[in-house]
Hints:
Layout: E1 2-5, H1 8-20, E2 28-31, H2 34-37, E3 45-50, H3 57-64, E4 68-77, H4 87-94, E5 100-105, E6 111-116
Parallel strand pairs: 1-2, 3-4
Antiparallel strand pairs: 4-6, 5-6
Amino acid sequence: MFGTEHEPAKVAEARADIAAAGLSDHVDILVGDLRETLTTLRGPIDFMPVDIWIPMALPALRIVTPLLRPGALVVCDNVVSGRRQYADYLAHVRDPAGPFTSITLPGHGGLEVSRKN
């Protein structure tokens, strides 16, 4: 499992929490701009949670999409409460000609659950 974070102080805190939970051998936090760190990943990837600064949601998904195996799930938070800010992201995952089938789950800001075709 991996995550990516731009702010070194948050990385240090996350790594300390991961170590305290005894998961250091199973979780890696990539440090830096996700447009660079995500390009170092190898697939296949089965699950991608998207809970980041909204302008980076679609760029992150575009970078990771080729690594997602068919049937992989992508879950993006706050798409109902932030529907205007997520307009490009939502258009991408809902595009009938695109690589995803997607549904919105209401409640607590809304979740977009997208399955890679």
